[in-house]
Request: fold
Amino acid sequence: MDVWILESAEAVAIKAADICAELIQRKPDARLGLAAGTTPQALYAELIRRNRLGQLSFSRVETFNLDEYLGIGPQHPQSFHRAMRDSLFAHVDIDPVNTHLPAGDSVDPAAEATAYEALIRARGGIDLQILGIGRNGHIGFNEPGSSLRSRTRVKTLSRATLRDSHLPKPDFEAPVMAITMGIGTILDARALLVLATGATKAAAVAAALEGPLAASCPASAIQLHPDATVVLDMAAAAELRLTDYYELVDEARRRLTMPCR
Reply:
């Protein structure tokens, strides 16, 4: 696990965009796993900026989102379909045919989850999965108690997740369930890019990176992945115990990339 602790949320977005851009430039038809939460929004803004400057093209990129709320369709203003269009897809040169999310309004959600899992496999799997970490340690909508080998399925959302979501509106009854990639599905990605910013994520980040591997903190499953990069701002890293070591690793990386004199 490669841990970067940066000065600000802006620096986190730039570093994450560098990682995404390097993959897309190396593999123009890369398959990205996307998250629709608040943390990746600054990353998406930076990717849009680079696309508009002609530095990065999404013309052959294919995307798979982690999840979607159950019971609302893709045109619903609170859907993740709509959120992704507004925050990324409508602003870059990606083919809408290559953007995939589970259908939250499916008449058979269990079958939709199975079909979504099969689609990911059929397309060759995900090259880079972008993840945020919920304050209760969830990744995707895999709430505490989720099996660490789970596949794409329907999950009930915790009260904590509902409180933190973008959904609550005075005239809107928020869904209490979602279709989500499972933890096992997430771990199948060739690489993980985990982002966290802000002091409210510090406890979950510490549990995920340095705590025991446990279903009580689903994000701890990233410890099992052989190619996981975690990018944090200083506030999100505040409760880590091994900060000195992560900083030592960073110093070593910098020395290795310095030109010889």
